[in-house]
Each structure stands twice: as structure tokens, then as C-alpha cells.
Amino acid sequence: MSDIAIKPRIKAETKIERPRLYKVILHNDDFTPREFVVAVLMAEFNMTDGQAHKVMITADRLGSCVVGVFARDIAETKATRATDAGRSMGFPLLFTTEPEE
Ligand code: NFA
């Protein structure tokens, strides 16, 4: 008989879920100047003038627009910084985050 003991092992299955991504959403308002919204989008979200214009116009027409999708902490930091940029100028500009489905 063999001296090698074989221990049965049950390997625990560890399901690793990839971290959720978060949308940053730009909300329309009646006061923030269009060009200011575009400037904030370019500065905080590294958009070109053309990309920023499209997002700004979409939010203006529909009420809101997804600006981009990021890891949670990055989405929250960008939304906060962009909202604060408006507030610092007295504008009600608002960016929020929400998890992707
Ligand atoms: N609705 C604003 C205006 O006409 C522009 C705006 C667009 C503000 C998108 C906020 C978001 N001055």
C-alpha cells in the first residue's frame, strides 16, 4: 500500500465580480451659460470642443446626458469637481453619478 495520503480537498469557488462602472450625468438648467458648460466638460472630462458641444446640446434638449463612464471613485471625483466649478461661478450646474446596470 502506498504511504502517500491523499486528502480530498473541496476548493471553494470564489466568484470575482468586476467592479461596477458609474455614469456621470450632466443635468440641464436654465442659468449656466452654454459656453461655460462646454469649458467644464473640456477641462474635467478631456473632451474636444466638438464632443463637449454635443453633450451640452443633448442635455439642453433632453434634460440630461451621460458624459462618460468611469470607476466609482473617478466618476464621483469628476462629478464633484465639475459641479463645484459651476458653483464657484454662482451657477446651478449639476453633475451626478449612477451605477451602470
Ligand atoms: N440650458 C443652458 C442655457 O441655455 C445651457 C446648459 C446646457 C446648462 C446643459 C446645463 C447643461 N444657457
From TrEMBL:
Sequence ranges assigned to domain Adaptor protein ClpS core in this UniProt record: 18-96
SUPFAM superfamilies: ClpS-like
Binding partners and assembly: Binds to the N-terminal domain of the chaperone ClpA.
NCBIfam families: PRK13019.1-4
Organism phylogeny: Bacteria, Pseudomonadati, Pseudomonadota, Alphaproteobacteria, Hyphomicrobiales
Record's keyword terms, sorted: Hydrolase, Protease
GO molecular function: peptidase activity
Function according to Swiss-Prot or TrEMBL: Involved in the modulation of the specificity of the ClpAP-mediated ATP-dependent protein degradation.
Key word Protease present: yes
GO biological-process terms attached to the record: protein catabolic process; proteolysis
Family the UniProt entry places it in: Belongs to the ClpS family.
Record Gene3D superfamilies: 3.30.1390.10
Name under which the protein is recorded: ATP-dependent Clp protease adapter protein ClpS
